[in-house]
């Protein structure tokens, strides 16, 4: 094995560790309230090494948005894989239930909530837009739902995200 392959493998492992620890840090304090020093310390690496993995805080947070988005999409994909039939409303309800059950992904949801609030930063805004476009297109593809049905589904999901973000229970289902 070459030194370059070992270095890449180590960097990939450290990136994965940074993603796991950064979720918690950014979920608690958001983009503006979390420093790269906080993230590096939580990941057990130096801040200078963090900057070798991610050139700046905005790049790190954009990668984190992609990471959290993928975690949530995986939760929904499991439900989509078990769906039989072609009734869009039934499919959307099953996907919404899977998304609601992803409450164990609370930190990922909080990162995405903070991301929306930080979308004025160019790279973050681009990642947020990409995240939601990908989710809408995925839901459209697996459900066959109309634009109106997808709109209601996302409105429900975003309202559901708001409850834990503000420390409340549930706003109920439509």
UniProtKB/TrEMBL annotation:
Q: Cite the entry's keywords alphabetically.
A: DNA-binding
Q: Which Pfam families match?
A: TetR_N
Query: What InterPro entries does the annotation carry?
Result: Homeodomain-like_sf, HTH-type_TetR-like_transc_reg, HTH_TetR
Q: Which SUPFAM superfamilies match?
A: Homeodomain-like (SSF46689)
User: At which residues is the DNA-binding region annotated?
Assistant: 35-54
Q: Any idea which GO molecular function terms this record carries?
A: DNA-binding transcription factor activity; transcription cis-regulatory region binding
Which part of the chain is the HTH tetR-type domain? 12-72
What the entry lists under PROSITE patterns is as follows: HTH_TETR_2
Instruction: Provide the protein name.
Output: HTH tetR-type domain-containing protein
